[in-house]
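Translate structure to sequence.
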């Protein structure tokens, strides 16, 4: 059997690597596809894990990681890891680094007020962007999918969790049936096992993506439960699992990103779902 074709142009950054992985994923051998999925869902683990620990988590042999790296033109797995490490340095500065960036933004006078103004300005930019980036037809389609669902499953972790928490609170007040995935009791798998094709899910994850959220969205999609998602890239692992997905990149101030536009989107979606359900119930009662 001939060896799998390798790429001649070595990706120079994480976005380029993601693009070529997604472009060629259908042609990848089974095990390499397994590594590709794990890499996109767990970029932090690829950046800092050992070959042995990553192979165990991805359920492949360590030699498969080397073949995966070489398939995309790298000399070995350690060379591939440098791409993932560079991504973290570029896109996810540590909180100490973010505070240093604030100190470098000339906040010598009225420092706290300047920080406040910086975050307000970032929130304005985010809201301006979302006003023009959300396709009204796609939004209507998302509302239609979720409004028709018997139960809406809300999936989010880490920075995205406040969004699903707000939606859970609002759905409760609006009498919309939901399940908030992410229980302290650790019964997420049991909860998701109850989902059917008559239900739907709304998933949220931003880079660096929560691997558990991506896996839960994939699981539901594989069982033909429609998924709507909010994320920040066309290459997000949520995109491929979703019937409808929205790309929203929050503006930042000194590396800190708020959830201004994301919360506005969540509020609009929640209320639109409740209103559509109310109209459908009123029409059925006539």
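Result:
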């Amino acid at each position: 059997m001939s060896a799998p074709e390798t790429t001649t142009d070595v990706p120079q950054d994480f976005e380029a690597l993601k693009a070529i992985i997604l472009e060629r994923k259908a042609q990848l051998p089974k095990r390499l596809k397994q590594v590709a999925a794990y890499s996109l869902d767990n970029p932090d683990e690829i950046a800092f894990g050992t070959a042995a620990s990553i192979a165990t988590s991805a359920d492949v042999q360590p030699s498969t990681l080397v073949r995966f790296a070489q398939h995309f033109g790298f000399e070995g797995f350690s060379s591939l890891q440098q791409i993932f490490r560079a991504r973290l340095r570029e896109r996810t500065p540590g909180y100490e680094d973010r505070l240093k960036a604030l100190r470098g933004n000339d906040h010598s006078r009225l420092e706290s007020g300047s920080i406040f103004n910086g975050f307000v300005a970032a929130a304005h930019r985010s809201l301006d962007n979302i006003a023009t980036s959300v396709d009204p037809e796609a939004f209507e389609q998302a509302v239609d999918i979720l409004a028709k669902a018997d139960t809406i499953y809300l999936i989010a972790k880490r920075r995205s969790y406040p969004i699903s928490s707000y939606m859970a609170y609002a759905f409760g007040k609006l009498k919309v049936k939901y399940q908030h995935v992410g229980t302290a009791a650790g019964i997420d798998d049991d909860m998701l096992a109850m989902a059917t094709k008559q239900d739907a899910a709304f998933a949220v994850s931003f880079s660096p993506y929560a691997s558990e959220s991506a896996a839960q969205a994939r699981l539901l999609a594989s069982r033909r439960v429609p998924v709507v998602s909010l994320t920040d890239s066309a290459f997000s692992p949520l995109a491929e699992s979703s019937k409808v997905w929205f790309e929203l990149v929050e503006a930042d101030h000194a590396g800190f990103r708020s959830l201004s536009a994301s919360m506005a989107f969540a509020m609009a979606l929640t209320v639109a779902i409740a209103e559509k359900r109310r109209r459908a119930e009123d029409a059925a009662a006539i």
